[in-house]
Specification:
transport, transmembrane, Growth Hormone, Chain: A, transmembrane helix, membrane, MFS transporter, single chain
Amino acid sequence: MAQHTATAPTSPAAGTSLNTPQMRRILASSFVGSAVEYYDFLLYAMAAAVVFNKVFFANLDAGWATFASFGTLAAGYAARPIGGAIFGHFGDRLGRKKMLILSMLMMGLATTAIGLLPTAAAIGVLAPALLVTLRVIQGIAVGGEWGGAMLIALEQAPSGKRGFAASFANMGAPAGAALSTLVMSAMTLLPKAEFLGWGWRVPFLLSAVLVGLALVIRLKVAESPLFQKLEHAAESRRLPIVEVFSRYPRELLLTVLAGVAQFTMAGMVTVWAVSEAVEKGADQTGVLNAKAVAAAAMLATTIVSARMCDRFGRKRILVAGIVAAIAAVFPILWLIGMGTVAGYAVAVILGQAIQGFLFGPLGAFIAEMFPTRVRYTGSSIAYQVSSTIGAGFTPMIAAGIIAATSSTTVLGIAWAAALVVCGVGILLAREGRTRDLASIE
């Protein structure tokens, strides 16, 4: 055992800088890999809002076609916890790096296949069935991505900069969202028939190129030293998922609630609101361009809040973000209801900025709840379950509330109430900023 301990890699936590060749490579991999994964995953959300209801569900009434399209979107989010559990298990047993490479390959293949999928007019009901299948594969892949990308940075970062290091995986989401939105927006400049015929496919096919570039970076990254030490310890380990649910149910619940807070912002302002604003008369291309600008705002606030959480703590920043989110609920809904590009632009920039403020501390907040031996599994399940609840079903729930009540007031009350519950959960959680990752139990 002494020999194992002596030869195991040492953690850089004793250092004080992220500006070393190894850490720069790790942070770049975390950011670029997540950006490509979320380009693929969020590209589908844009297509679900403006394309799929017309090419895969054209036989339905417009309102129900939108509902069905968002239902396929939700299927991918529903698969994310499954991906989190599968990749988390093997990430805790075999290593973070191997799972990151596998998840990226799965995502790239599924996204490219969506770009080649025949429409319902060509193959009937088989088309939406295949669409759902590929969306589920996307969900499983992205379910395994975030936990590994976040942990491989957090577990190798200096202790006082873990929050910022972990946020690089989160920064990839708005970067991927901006890229996917801009590419889809460019395609909407085509004549409508050409856009619906082939233009929407181009962003999906571009995924093959992006995945190849990201893999080149990711293959050069070193494995997490904390995992390698655990591997060298040669101890008997239980199934990670069993241990998470049996020993850490409270931590799992509280981290899910923290994730739901920021994911409801994503589901409302970047998916449901796109469809709502376009249906009310806003120019489709203008709406997508506004969403791309908002992603940049989210990236900026993610960086700021990640820095702040290393100084003031994860909980304080998260609670401040939730208070801002609750205050913004009804102004955002009013702006979306204007049915103009300007109204949507203000709403989505405000919503995404608040989402970024919640997003910055989230990775560290979640990871610091679980010990190394189950950290990939616990973090992935918490994050992906919250994404399923918050972003996956929010657009469909919002569309259902509006269809049933025609009232944004009811929708706003439901949204604000969900945020309050999330805030209470965060207040009940333990602050992790000063915890030692190697000794968490």
